[in-house]
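Late entry, evening session. Most of the bench is empty. Finally got around to the prediction I had been postponing all week. Sequence below, unchanged from the version circulated by S.P.
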Amino acid sequence: MGKRGRRLRFLGKILFVFYIGFIIYFLLFSEWYGRGAMQEYRYNLVLFKEIKRFWIYREQLGWYAVFTNLFGNVLIFVPFGFFLPMASKYRSFLAAVFYSFALSFCVETFQLLTKVGSFDVDDMLLNTLGGAFGYIAFIICAALRRRHGIKRTKRNGRR
């Protein structure tokens, strides 16, 4: 790995650490989406139940609520799937999916136990999809970077 590759990997590690800090704060402690303490445990163990509910009642809930719940749960984990292979030795699609699921499971469990949110298997599915999309974006960017590097090397007469 060249000097530029080491710099990118180091930058990826720094961004990954900042992202983890952000996600912990946002998903567990931020009151932005009503993360205040609840009196009772709330959970959904039926896959697609909340996704269907948000879609069926989209007119009553409003598009903002639907977007933030369905797409927000995907989008918040895209950086995780992107930065994970930059910051670790785990560079496979399955590793990105597994660790996205594991992090989501930990977040959902913490929310349930501390009553600052609800345990929702639909959120875990959407978060895991986000991690997978992030990994795919990483692979595409890495391929473009390699391709651009090869073209630049050929232009400079090296190879």
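Two things to note before I forget:
Residues 121-155 form the longest helix (35 residues).
The two ends are 16 Å apart (CA to CA).
Will write this up properly tomorrow.
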